[in-house]
Amino acid sequence: MRGLLQRLQRRAEKRLPALTRYRRPEPLPITLHRRRIYIVPSGFGLGFTVLLLVMLVGALNYNNNAALLLTCLLGAASAASMLVAFRNLDGLRLDHLRAGHAIAGEAIELVCSFHSDRPRSAIRLDLDDESTAFAVDGTDAARVSLRLPTRRRGWQPLPRLRLWTSWPLGMFRAWSWLHPAQSVLVWPRPEATGPAPRAMADDARHMQLHRGEELAALRDYRAGDPQRHIAWKPSARHDDLLVKDFEQPRSQPQWSLDWRQLHGLDDEARIARLARWLNEAQAQRRSFSLWLPGNDIGSGSGPQHYVRCMDALAGLP
């Protein structure tokens, strides 16, 4: 029954221009109103209508006032449920949409924020074959998470989202389409294996000293050393003054990731190798720099630096 209804819906959208009015992308926020909400009887509603007709014929045939009253009450309840289903969507607003991070071939998480001035229940949001139910309490925004499949790196436009409900009795199905004018950035898929990147310093001769926070060693006092660094207790057991040394060599050399060094590879192969190097640098907590055509990212480390480099890599033409 569900497949039949979906085929009828797609056929109706092709023939009726009003149903395809909101196929074009539109900026956020998007507010639902009466001109963009559609409602049809559900399979249960059609069966219930047939049952009411049979009850009506029986009540009129046997002149049964109680059965006729029950039929009218049930018919009024079904008509009221149609209005409630419509009002459950009317006025609902999609404020903003936030996307996470994912590599090509994996699903990227989308977080939609819905707002309403009154409570709403049993609303569903569909994206392809995935469906999520949520409710709005009328005070705070409702955040709904969906997973969007991805196929290749780069900017990927968002498909249409279907918002629908059959609340409260399931006799009618009200729905509307949301098509935000927004794209998500998909990261490139890194290569499986390959050579390691070239480091800016590969031996101890290029190791730089940096001022650490923990004590590294004790050394003899030199003119100009601050008095607060003098180790008084150890100095009392020696003839000369000893000074606390906080200078430590860097544990790992910096990686220089350069597009120009990858000779003999096409553009996509270069992107895949650089993506693997970025993942390895992030996993090993290394400091790294990235040079791309038209974009030179200086040395850095940490999650924000990693996200910046992956975004630049994904945005290459």
Automatic annotation (TrEMBL):
Query: What residue intervals traverse the membrane?
Result: 37-60, 66-86
What does the UniProt keyword field contain? Membrane, Transmembrane, Transmembrane helix
Q: Which domain of life is it from?
A: Bacteria
Q: Which InterPro entries match?
A: DUF58
Stated name of the protein = DUF58 domain-containing protein
Q: Does the record's keyword annotation contain Isomerase?
A: no
Pinpoint the DUF58 domain residues. Answer: 218-255
